[in-house]
Amino acid sequence: MALAKQRRIKTTLMDRPFTSHSPFSTPMTSKLVSLPVWFENHVRALFDVSDSDVDFEALFDATFAKDTTFVQNGTNASRDDVKQALGGQRGFSSNITVTFGEIIEAPLKDGDEVVSGAGVVAGKLRVTRFSKFLVHDVRQKTETSVFFITTIRPDPTLPSDQGQDNRRVVNNNEVVTNAPNN
């Protein structure tokens, strides 16, 4: 079942046309994907090193709001620091695999009202990176486990018409552990 879910997510991501406005554009008649699927698609795209022509800045901006709060292992991080760290991982890796565990979703409420298109997703993911560089004729592998609680909501500064998905991460809390290099 997990493999089928991975295939569906990969297909969903690849079926979305890339535009300069949003790499996850959908036709006007399309229904928005669920928040867990939205989150997985965006995270996978941020780590995808297979296409060097992809505009990482546009991917990052299509994922995170301009005022996103980032907390990693209890320490605040700036948007620019997170962007630089993610971009750096892409630059030094020949292959990156992102594997998700179960993701749970909860609606976001404003008082008693559920906020449309918004919610909190939480779960675990593992990032496996293989270096571009060989050490003793072997590619170095690094594994990172991330436990996340992420709030996603529509960005009021972006247009919500014309079929564009204006949802963005507004709060990202994560606990990150790195496994020793193999």
From TrEMBL:
Residues 169-182 have a biased composition (Low complexity). Residues 155-182 are annotated as: Disordered. It comes from the Eukaryota. This is SnoaL-like domain-containing protein.
